[in-house]
User: Fold these one by one.
Assistant:
Number 1:
Amino acid sequence: METQQVATAARLLAHDTFDKKCALRPIMDQTTSRWATLIISALVAGPHRFAQLHQRVGGISQKMLSQNLKALARAGLVDRQVAPTNPPQVTYSLTDLGTGLAGPLTELIQWFGRHGGELLAAQEHYDSQQGPPRG
Amino acid sequence: METQQVATAARLLAHDTFDKKCALRPIMDQTTSRWATLIISALVAGPHRFAQLHQRVGGISQKMLSQNLKALARAGLVDRQVAPTNPPQVTYSLTDLGTGLAGPLTELIQWFGRHGGELLAAQEHYDSQQGPPRG
DNA sequence: CAGCATCCGACACGATACTG
DNA sequence: CAGTATCGTGTCGGATGCTG
């Protein structure tokens, strides 16, 4: 189908997220990932040191923190400032781009906060009547 | 520290997303996961059949689609309607809760659409000057 | 058509140890 | 303090085949 191909091309040009080949998918995946969302929303409050972030984002390992921070820096969402002191001081902060993302992202997180009860209740209801998650 | 424990308790009651034990984390993880975001935003346009979704969300496998759909149904975000016909017709649609989530979520996706160019450019710039992604 | 069961590879993730 | 290197495990996720 010719129209099919045209549609695909149009979707690619427009960054159609539904398209399999959308170049944004990898970035979206990592940016909306478990840890990245928390890291970004933590940085909304202001610049943080590595250890501060590690403490703020409960349960994250240094490896994951470092890894996510690097990915976010690569995407141009966070800025990494190294102070030439001893011991070294590294400060992470949101770029303008990152701050822009933080808006929609925190709204999403806040939605979860507001509707957390409903979500939990729905799960309990679901589990109680037909399919317990395990066993 | 007593205050530490009190703070932790307060965070749990308030669904503090930063807390390691936050009960919402698993739900958030799967809801903001690669496929779930696309499925939800696909359903905003209206109810879909299984095959329709499979086609709409480019690159997803039946397994992942089925799995995500089940998880979303469990969280009370999508509704599953089975018509007793032959062959069976199963229709998925957003619940009110799901529609509520779709708002913040589509805003987030649209943000990526608008700033996709900047993100991609930032990555290229980053890679070109210091750290190519894979040696 | 809708969807589950199974196998299997790839990597995400965490714990630990080590470096500057 | 701020990471990197390495290892082991668990889960993610695709391909295939079968059911009703």
Number 2:
Amino acid sequence: MNTVMATPSFKPLYEQIKELLTQSLIQGEWGPGESIPSEMDLATRYSVSQGTVRKAIDALAQENILVRRQGKGTFVATHNEEQVKLRFLRLASADGDKELLENQLLECNRIPVKAEIGKLLGLKSGTSVIEIKRLLSFNQTPVIYDHVIIPAAHFKGLNANKIQEYNGSLYRMYETLYGIRMIRASERLTAISASIDIAESLGIKEGYPLLRIERIAYTYGDKPMEWRLGLCVTDNHHYMNELE
Amino acid sequence: MNTVMATPSFKPLYEQIKELLTQSLIQGEWGPGESIPSEMDLATRYSVSQGTVRKAIDALAQENILVRRQGKGTFVATHNEEQVKLRFLRLASADGDKELLENQLLECNRIPVKAEIGKLLGLKSGTSVIEIKRLLSFNQTPVIYDHVIIPAAHFKGLNANKIQEYNGSLYRMYETLYGIRMIRASERLTAISASIDIAESLGIKEGYPLLRIERIAYTYGDKPMEWRLGLCVTDNHHYMNELE
DNA sequence: GAGTGGTCTAGACCACCAA
DNA sequence: TGGTGGTCTAGACCACTCA
């Protein structure tokens, strides 16, 4: 029954299963929000025990790629749920209040990618990308100036209207319209002084300190898919982080 | 053999085992760096199967509280190892170089705690705390101005000399001298302008943008044990963060 | 009641390490 | 060689969901 030696790879079985599941996710066999086969079915499909499938699913659930629901099944994670809609937004009100998040689109252009960003996204120089600039406000106050770059080839037909529809959560839009789900992101933070034009957009004075957040977001298979720069006014909002 | 119903708690067995192990850690049955009994021994002690102990240990290993070493045993995690010495230091060189970290102690006083910080650490107003101020430099350049507050009752006899000995890693010192191990921390980041005196310490101009990192560090049982404020020059160093 | 994930057990074998 | 953790299996029973 055990096929460890029959495969070219010597990884543990459950890691191989995990890779097979990831492949199915990449190929879209199960879309965001859909359920995957039961543990028993998968065990049969891959000719392993339920426990081994379970361990593979556990790992993917740990990475927020799958979601288990007792009694119902295991589902492909999605950004389309209230609790996880803003999973990657670490900025929270200093006093813990819930606030109304608003989204004002400033620009949406199709341009050739700049060298540095292309490198980060694994794109050839000059590849066409979509550039989005927007302003995020909490309770009517501008807080984040966002600059987003995504490869145009993967987001055909994207335009300002579509962005507006999804009001705020780009990841929800990527997923729903293009089946591209971001599974993780890496950020680097610095403090900078506001330039004159950014200051104007955010309604602050030139030179005011801003939290600069540069992010690269990755989709299945750890493929970089989005570059993002957020400039944040941190007077009433803090970037929260848990170290473990 | 199974004693789930015999206990007042209805949590899963492996969670109960996890709590028992945590209790043993709090009570110092096994100190940082020491090995804990083998899975089989623990299974016997708690009258459960090895698999159940394993699941409890897995959870604690996941939280960086225990460390597994195949063929050797399971050990209490420690900050006394090169790889994890600076586990909570997220500031890294922008170009990825390794750098020499230096530590210059500025102050070390015993003072009554201020109201806000006392609240965060769960201390009564006026409780005696130790205040540490220091400057961290990378490659001879000052980068972080650190301000640390810890309850004096838990760190008897702490003085400037002891801090110097451990050159940089306070967590290593807490652990080695006082058996207090920090297991997690929560941080909130903002951008601020340097005040005149901080600017002087860091060798920058007044008003220069700084990354302000406020941290609370927790020991076993999620007890808050240290408050820390770091003010960072982010010209050549970035705060790195992985979102998952 | 049928089907799902969640817990727990018992036992086999493997990989690694130290004496 | 003996002891440790790491993997894998097989089967039992529980808790939850939904028709």
